[in-house]
Design a protein that fits this description.
3 helices; globular
Length: 70
């Protein structure tokens, strides 16, 4: 089982704060939005496949990396 600090959301928020220097308030808002999105996507009867969900996360991470490019 994953602990709260090992969840992908927590890892992403840690990245935003440490690497992208997001404020704690902004990071909390992102975390809340991501948690709500996860609950929506993974709800019983949800139609979004887990692979698509994982792909969305990877795409978001890549977009943030592009933002770091010179």
């Amino acid at each position: 089982t994953m602990t709260a600090t090992e969840t992908p959301i927590h890892q992403f928020i840690t990245y935003l704060q440490s690497e992208r220097h997001f404020s704690p308030h902004t990071a909390r808002c992102y975390a809340a939005d991501l948690q709500q999105f996860c609950l929506y996507v993974l709800r019983p009867g949800g139609r979004v496949a887990l692979r698509l969900f994982a792909a969305l996360g990877q795409a978001l991470f890549l977009l943030l990396q592009i933002g770091d490019a010179p």
